[in-house]
Here is the input.
Amino acid sequence: MSSFSVTEPSNRSKWFAGTLVILYALITMVPLAWIMLTGFKSPADAISYPPKVVFEPTLEGYVNLFTTRTRQTPEFLAANPPETWYEEIVREYDMVIAGPSKFGERFLNSVIIGFGSTFLSIFLGTLAAYAFSRFKIPLADDLLFFILSTRMMPPIAVAIPIFLMYRQLGLSDTHLGMILLYTGVNISLAVWLLKGFIDEIPLEYEEAALIDGYTRFQAFYKVVLPQAATGIASTAIFCLIFAWNEYAFAVLLTSGTAQTAPPFIPTIIGVGGLDWPAVAAGATIFLLPVMIFTILLRKHLLRGITFGAVRK
Amino acid sequence: MPDSPATRAAAATPVRVARKIRGLSDRAIAWIFVAPTIFLLLAINIFPLIWTINLSFTNFKANRIGREVKNVGLRNYERILTDSDIWLNMQATAHFLFWTIFFQVLIGFTLAYLINKKFKGNDLWTTIIVLPMMLSPAVVGNFWKFLYQPQIGLFNYIVAFFTGKDPSSFEMLGSVNLAPWSIVIVDTWMWTPFVMLICLAGLRSIPDYIYEAAEVDRASKLRQFFTITIPMVLPFLMLAVLFRGIENFKMFDLVVQLTGGGPGSTTELTSINLKREAFEKWRTGYASAYAIILFVTVFGLASIYVKALNKVKER
Here is the structure.
C-alpha cells in the first residue's frame, strides 16, 4: 500500500475477523453437508449411532427417491435376474422396481410453476414499474404502500378465501391457479424492486429516443429495457426463489396434479418408516440448484436483498 | 444525430405534442401498463381480503356447502379474544419472535462487523454464509428434524460430545422445555445471514471521512464504535428487525415441518393454530376473524415501529 489510511483495519484484526467468519461459515455448512452425505448412505448407515462420517457410498437413496418398489417371492427374483444397476441395488432387499415414483412429476411441477410465475411477474411487473416510474399516476404512493402491506397477511389467512375462490373457479390443484397465485404474491415486490431500478435510468435517454422519432413503446423496449436488464434479472431470481421454496399455499391448495416438491419431499416414506436417505436425496436435488444459483449470481443477489430492504 | 430539416423540426416540436401525434397518449400507456397488475392484485389480494372480512361475521364452514350461513355479528371476534388457548399461541409466537430476533441481531451484526474488516476472500465466505436463507423453509425444517433425532441425530451427538451427556437423554423436538428453543435455533441458523447482509449494507454506507475526522480528533476506537458505527447502522438494523418480525409473525412452513406445533401446543404459533381452525376443523368463519385479528396486529405493530424508525432516521 502506498498511502497510509487510518480506516484500513490492521493486518492482525483482519486475520482475527477472517478466522471467526470462516469458522462461522464452516459451522453453518455442517447441516447442509450432512444432508448431502446422508443422501449417499444406506438406510442402516443413515440411522447408525454414533453418526457415521466415513461410510460406503451408495445410490440407494436416489434410486428409492425416483422409484416405487414391491417385495417379491424368491422364485420370482430367481427367474428374473436384474438387468440394470438400479435393479441390482433394489434386489438386495428382495424387491423389484414397480415403476417411477411421483418425485419426477413434483419436481417438474416446481419448475413449471416457478418459471411460469416468474415470467408473468416480471412481464407485468416491468410494465407497471415503468408506468409508476415515468408517469404521474394518481395515488401512486398510497397504492404502492397498500400493495406492500398485503404481504403482511399470513399465507394461511390469504389461503382461506383463495381456497374458496379457486374451488368455485375450478382452479384448485392446477398449474394455472398456482402460477396466478404466486404471481399475485410476488408482483408487489417485483414492481417495488423494478421501479427502483428504472428510477435509476436517466430520463434523457428516452427523451432523446422520443425526439429521434421513437414511439413510447419503442423507447420502452429499445432504450429502457436493455438498461434495466440487470435489475430485471435480479428481480427475476427473487421471484423464482420465492415460488421454488413456497410451501404453505402449495400444501393447502394442491394435492396431486399441481403439487410442487416442498410439500412432497417430507412425505417420502420407505419400508418401515421414513426413508431418510431418500428424503435427503430429494432435499439435495431440490436445494442444489438454488445453492449453485446463489454462488454464481452472488453479486446481483446480495445487492438485490439489501437494495429491496433498504429502499422501503 | 444528422442535422436535417426533419430532425430539426422534431426537436422544435414540444415533446408533449410529439407524443400525442404518435399513437397512444402517455396517459393511455400508463393505464395499459398498470392495469394488468392492478387487476391481478385486486383478484389475488384485495378481493380475498374483503371476502375474509365478510366471512368473519358468519358461521360459514367450507366443508359443508349446503348449510345455511348465518350472520353472527362480532361473536367470532369475541370468542377469539377471550379464548385462553389463543393467548397461549400468542405467547409461543412472542417467545419465538423475541429470541429469534435477539440472536439474529447479535450474531448478524457481529458477523457484518467482522466481514467489514475486508479480509481476503470475504465475499466468498459471505456467499457461503448466505446459503441457508435461500433454501426452502419446509425442506430445511424437514431435514433439521432428522438432525434433531434423539438417538441418531447429528445435533444431539454434537451437543452430547461437548457436554458429556447421553445423546438419547434429551429430545429437542419432543420435550416441552426444549421444543420452543429448537425452532429458535433453526430459524436463527437460517435467517442470521439476512440481518448480516442488511447490517453490512449499513456499515458500508458509512463514509471513511467520518472515521478519519474522528481519528484526527483522537477519539478512541471504542468511542468511534459507539458514537459513529452504532448510530449509523441503527436504522439499517431496525429495518432488518422489522422484516424479520413480520416474517416470523407469519411463520408457518419451517415450524410445521419441525414440530407440527407440538409437543402439546408448546410450539403452536398463531399461523399453525390458524391452519388447524381453517383447514382441519373447517371453522371458516371463525378462522377468518382470526386472520383479520392477526393482520390488524401485524399492521398496527409495524406502523408504530415504522414511525419509530423514521424518528431514528431523522436524527
Summary: Chain A touches chain B through 104 residues (CB under 8 Å). The radius of gyration of chain A is 26 Å.
